[in-house]
Amino acid sequence: MDKIIESLISSGVPAIVIIAGLYFGKNLIEHFFNETIELKKKELEQENKNFQHQLDAKLQEFNVKFSSLHTERAQVIKELYQKMLKLQSSLHNIFKYEPTNFKNNNEPIVLYTNSFADFKKYYLENKIYFSESTTNKIDSFTENYSKITLEFIELIQNEGDKLNEWKILSKNSSSYTSEIINVLIIDFRNLLGVETLKQ
Question: How far is residue 41 from each of residues 34, 35, 105, 139, measured CA to CA in Å?
Answer without folding.
Answer: 10, 10, 85, 60
